[in-house]
Protein 1
Amino acid sequence: MGRGAVPDLPLHLRLIRGALRRLNISLSRRRERPNARRTAGDSLPGQEAALRKLKLDDPASRAYFEKHLPRLKKTLSLVPPPRSSGRVLELGCYMHLTPALRHYCGFREVRGTDFGAGGLHKSVRYADSLFELEVDLFNAERDTYPYSAGYFELVLVCEVIEHMLYDPMHLLLEARRVLEEGGRILITTPNIAGLTSVARVLHGHDNPQIHSKYKIPASGPADVQHVREYTMVELGELVAAAGFEIEQLFTEPIEEYSFYQPLLAFLEENGYNPSNRGEQTYCVARKRESLPVTRYPEFLYER
């Protein structure tokens, strides 16, 4: 008996069931955009060596760095080399990738932002020197960014868009404005349709968002936690709506959740698309002035 066969169904119904499975997978795959898929678990030794030059004395920062090192390495591997202005902007600057943008990737001007008002001086030890940065503070989904049009050739939006409370398209459109024609945006964000989220829904116990916990309140302004996590397809549609041409769009699994991998067979057997079920989504897209912009995509905004 073939995998997934139901013995008490007559042959013609089993054949129809199999055809429906294949149709379901085919239809769901049509919504996925072409992408240059990368192999999960790439060692990326050059990127890791560059990132490990970062000197983090704070135990909490070091623990975060080690936990997220696979994502940081993959992100750094997707950074295109500077070709024109040599200027890069990192939205939501936590200083983990930032020094490598200058010292490893070769960008001559690195800018960083965070939520707040005014400016903030940040510094971190990188290799044998002190990397210093004046971080611009503003509201990424409401304010006009304090940069002229076409100023940067690359904007990084790493683990940021899922924190937007009101208007994620504002972030993308401002990023598009400050990018030069042909400049790129690099986005990383959790995948709400990843295998872990599917498993949590099926179990019916845990929240399907990869990161659904609140931080314990402390002194100072509270960080906005994950407001909305996106499927890979949704992220692609959102980026395209902002007038970008997608070059790479793919997911990768997070090792911490690898025990859910057997669920892939269950999805395939029951007619669901098993591809791009990693917990982490990566997107690289290029600004094209000729592309139309949809200010409020219907799948994300209601009138």
Protein 2
Amino acid sequence: MSNVDRSARVNPVNDLAARGAMTTDLARPAVALAIGAHPDDIEFGCGATLAKWASQGTAIFHLVLSDGSKGSWDPDYDRGALVALRQAEQRRAATLLGGGEVEFCDWVDGELRNSPQAQERVARSIRTIRPDVVLGHDPWRRYRLHPDHRHAGFITTDAIVAARDPHFFANQGLAPHRPSALLLWEADEPNHVEDVVGFADTKIAALLAHESQHQSTMGIDATGAEGASVQAADAFAQGVKDQLSAHGALAGITQGESFHLITET
């Protein structure tokens, strides 16, 4: 894997051609809930959008499904220490995006499954937080290898259906809730773009807060020469900006994050 071009892995969204008309810029939600499979997935998928909304007064919530315990190339890394580190990194990233509560489900990294138990847990968060907009992984993205991303997307969509219906998980004792919109990142067929001009650096700072992922995910080797590490960090940041430009171009915007928007939730 040493010859992999990591610049292509920065944020693999919208590498498929868009079809049909693009919508842009939802009305600012009062409350938004982002659901990611691992620590850092939310920042990759919608970090700039969350930063924009937070700056405008949206209450942001983060729900991370897995414990991130396999997020290292070091086979001797203590898993408990890695989980604690990645949770701290996620909280720091959320703060950099403008704040917001972070919840962790702590399911084992690599072992997410779209089970009734998982749906019940996420439906509980939806009913408790009562978001106007939910953001998450697109489970229908073709050729997706990582099972956690695929399962996280289906857990999210299925939990939205459950949360809106009083007959699902009635034992929770919580009122049903139906979000007005679902935004799926890494969209197989993007149809919506959020203008994020002015928020690229915030997204990059939040991503770089995940220091444990610098080498394995971002191509930044902290053990190398200082100049080389700085150069790699700059290359990573430029890759993020290039992606934002490509996503924005789908709707004639300078920088954007694109999604598949579903409003019939």
Protein 3
Amino acid sequence: MPRRTNPSEMLIRQQLQALTRALPAAQKGDAHLLHEARVASRRLRERLPLVLPNSSGRKFVRKVRRLSRALGPARELDVALQTLDEISSANDVPSAAVAKLRQLMRQERQRLYAAMNTEVARVDVDKLRRRAVAAVRKAHHVPTAARHSKRMAAARERAALRAIRLRAAIDNAAGLYLPDRLHDVRIAIKKMRYSLEMVRELSGSRAMARIATLKGAQDLLGRMHDLEVLIGRVRAVQGSSSAANLRLSAGLDRLVRRLETECRQIHGHYMAHRKKLLTVCEHSVTATDTTQTKTQSSAA
């Protein structure tokens, strides 16, 4: 009779498989699978501390974080190129500026992918997958109702902590257009979303409304961040010898104004979304407090 996979193992097995499946094509330049590999690595970093809350778990998290960081610069440049392609057809975007920027970014892409592959090669991903699964099997070899209840409580507590940090990031950003602080909000949203996904998987719930709210806000702020990254690249070109002639420099100025206008528009959409985000945060914290109160009452 085949061995039944326990819930703790399932929490990481799927993400480990996604990571190992996507990485080879990602290293060859597949932008979509590079994104899939990076998302899987981030989800793993959220899940590993729950199923392996010990030194072994921290060691695996460090290795996965190394992968995430290795994939980051190449992924960010791929997104910048995609964003540039999307806006290049607009009438108010100067074609010469776009062409020059695309040329320079494609040259940089080759360098970033080479650096990424060097870093990824330092992590034996297949060995990481085997050892992580084996460690979880050993730690959770006897699934019991009490163990599942404890795991659920830990997952809810983690989601509540993410909610508190998200609420703090939202308060810190206030209603101002401050890219750095809004980037912190985006990261906090992403981490909370991954935590709620984990709670959903463990509980067997089909509820998606709160996760959808987080994803909507994450997509908004993600687009804003992508535009800000592209603005940074345009300004870097403006300050270099690559923008030696006045016509090209003027075209780059127009491109920056176009990108900044969209950023401001997105910020307005985010502000309309803000109250819903705070409601999601409040629900996660309240749900954890209620669960803890019930547990304490039962114990008494």
Protein 4
Amino acid sequence: MAAVRFALSPRDGMFFKDGRGWYTSDSERGHAVPWPYPSTLRGAIRTAWGRAVETAEGRIFTPDDWLERTKNITIGTVVALRRARGEAWSPSHRMWPVPADALCSGISRSVHRLDPIPRKIPTLGRGDDLAREALWRPDMPPGGKPEAAPAFWTDTELSDWLCDRPVLKLHAEEHETRSMTTRIDLRIGIDPELGTVSEGALFATETVETLQRVGDDLFEWGIGIEAQLPEGGNGLARIFTLGSDRRLATSEPLPEAVFAPPPSMDLRDTPGLRLIVVSPACFSAGWLPDGFEVHGNEYRGHLAGVTSEVVLRAAFVPRATHVSGWDMARRRPKRTRRLVPPGAVYFFQKTERAAFTANEMARLWLQAIGTQEDRDEGFGRVIAGPWETP
């Protein structure tokens, strides 16, 4: 297998349909996910690689050929990218999901950090209920209703947040630079007998724009991907098709530094560890990371790169999302997965109360958690930072 790192640049936006049907509302609109799931991108890579091999061998793959020849293609980290048109992709173009422990509220110019604290009032229960109710929770700051958070932070903003440096709230005009807009594309079909629009073929799709004009400047969004491709093929395809309507995207090689920790990461030994989910994570127990079990009134387990047993102290997990897909080779739906969304934050302490070292946090940079099958499809990537426990 050969490791490749590349960026996909959609030429006319993206439309990755969600799991809802076409006619789930009066609008007859195909609803899109705001950012492609890693499993969808893996499918696009398998298609592009397989088509190139078909061309080279002068034959068409059977469904069994597709399954066998592309089964070892895996996908690692997927990261959002945003650059000014004409620039070469670099680590400074990375965009990250905003962590769930970041709150914009009140008159403060800085983003408020939600730090969990122990519960003051005990609860009744046993087993999993007792452990879940014993998780620490934050005190909400005064200041009224929280403000809307952007979809992404820049590389600098996330690095500052991980290292406990202040992050300033965005002005209203800055929000558009941290998210993508959508447009509605109308599709029609013509009845060949009547020469008029066929009502059964009239529908609309939500297309995510990847080109963005800010003032006089033009920016574009891309998708940075790490993948493993079989040896002996034609390598990385130049043209990909993406999404439900196979829109074209071009690929460009990426430097390894795009997937490395930022130079401004100033990690230090701390009594606690903050773990941020940066790609959707699939756990067998829903929100609870795999490998953690109830011990008394605590969740205990292990993290990759940390030799000591750890205790889960708090979990800030937004509402779960669901991903489903279609198996093109077998012509049947794939299993539906219930995912922890990007931005979820978990807080840990070691059971012996020893400090987490800077090296342990560094080893967790873009580490994958979850089952092997889900890790091979790019799910469950995390990054870590210090947490000053109360």
